[in-house]
Design a protein that fits this description.
The protein is mainly alpha-helical. 46% of the residues lie in helices and 6% in strands. The strands form 2 sheets. The chain has a 3-stranded antiparallel beta sheet, with helices on one face.
Length: 368
């Protein structure tokens, strides 16, 4: 076994991996700031388990645990390849659990907060807020969207690529994060006018033009958008650690709270559609003994919605439907212009979120 410098070997290791641009950037950043300062001057066979333990302890005292875990995993992977290359006999990275990340629970927004964020972001960027929350779409997927990605009837978006922006400002167009990322997302009906207006007012005019561009027609820039996002977040009253990406987590959370599976939320079923349609084919509301009592409970929930989320009221109505399966005829419930109606009656809903909806909340599995 010859002497091989760790820094030279590590950089060559990254070069040979054929990594995605964002992963390549991350690995080189971790090496430059966290790994090479500790091991760059050593040869591979000079790195001992005690050296790794000391390095990790120093890193934990200087930076966040998540960054240290990522750095440790990278170091361990490089040393594992060195074993395969017969440059060392054993991997010196033997600290149990050192590569595990304990990420804190991410925050979520309410439906009212999503609306408020969209308003605060302004006309040009409000659709990105809704797409992230109710798609839910990754920011780098939205940036790659073009006019040809959108259909109005049915209202849907086809995700086929992503365009993440590196820290250097260079945008890298390519595949989605995974094969499952290529998908068609059916959007809730209340976004129809939002999408039409955005296409008319802000998207590039070419048939294959980008959907989201800056005020002067320049490509989307993370830094410029980030400044607007920080101001909007503060205006709405959300904490500084609430990221734009957390809107996507919000969408998944809203869906799963309604009973949708993770597969539903990651695939073609959207957060909004899952909440309104339910996690599976919904059951027609049929009358039985006591069914009117359940229906009364449903009406009461909608009457008292007020500033509460429409989603909570929808879930109550859905639960009522599933308990009332022997009604003599199917009941379709429609929410238009802030009014909930069925075959028996209609009454106003005071929830701002409810008033915005122009779709159909139905006991049948009706795509909105």
């Amino acid at each position: 076994m010859g002497k091989v410098n760790f820094e030279a070997y590590a950089l060559e290791w990254v070069d040979e991996r054929g990594l995605a641009a964002t992963t390549d950037e991350l690995y080189r950043w971790l090496l430059r700031l966290h790994v090479l300062p500790g091991f760059g001057d050593l040869d591979l066979d000079e790195i001992a388990p005690s050296t790794v333990r000391t390095w990790r302890a120093e890193r934990l005292a200087a930076t966040g645990a998540t960054t240290v875990a990522k750095s440790y995993r990278l170091l361990k992977a490089i040393m594992e390849t060195a074993i395969d290359d017969e440059l060392i006999r054993r991997n010196p990275c033997r600290i149990r659990g050192a590569g595990s990340e304990q990420a804190k629970e991410r925050s979520t927004a309410t439906v009212a907060q999503v609306d408020a964020l969209a308003e605060a972001m302004g006309p040009r960027w409000r659709l990105m807020v809704y797409f992230c929350a109710y798609g839910p779409m990754r920011p780098e997927e939205q940036v790659a969207l073009r006019r040809t990605s959108v259909t109005l009837d049915p209202l849907a978006v086809r995700i086929t690529e992503a365009a993440p922006e590196l820290n250097t400002g260079r945008r890298v167009e390519g595949d989605t994060k995974s094969a499952a990322g290529v998908r068609t997302i059916h959007l809730p009906a209340f976004l129809s006018m939002e999408v039409k207006r955005h296409l008319d007012w802000f998207a590039e005019k070419e048939p294959d033009g980008l959907l989201f561009v800056g005020e002067k027609g320049a490509p989307f820039r993370r830094t410029s958008f980030g400044r607007k996002w920080a101001k909007a977040r503060a205006k709405v009253g959300l904490s500084k650690d609430f990221r734009f990406y957390d809107l996507r987590h919000t969408g998944h959370t809203l869906s799963t709270q309604s009973g949708a599976t993770l597969k539903d939320t990651m695939g073609t079923r959207t957060a909004a559609a899952a909440l309104v349609d339910g996690p599976s084919a919904a059951v027609p509301c049929r009358e039985e003994t006591g069914a009117q009592t359940h229906l009364h409970a449903s009406r009461k929930a909608f009457r008292s919605a007020g500033s509460a989320d429409l989603w909570s009221a929808c879930r109550t109505r859905q639960a009522v439907s599933s308990r009332s399966r022997s009604h003599s005829s199917p009941m379709t419930c429609v929410l238009r212009s802030g009014r909930w109606s069925d075959s028996a009656s209609a009454w106003p809903i005071t929830s701002p979120a409810a008033t915005r909806w122009g779709g159909v909340i139905s006991s049948t599995a009706e795509r909105i």
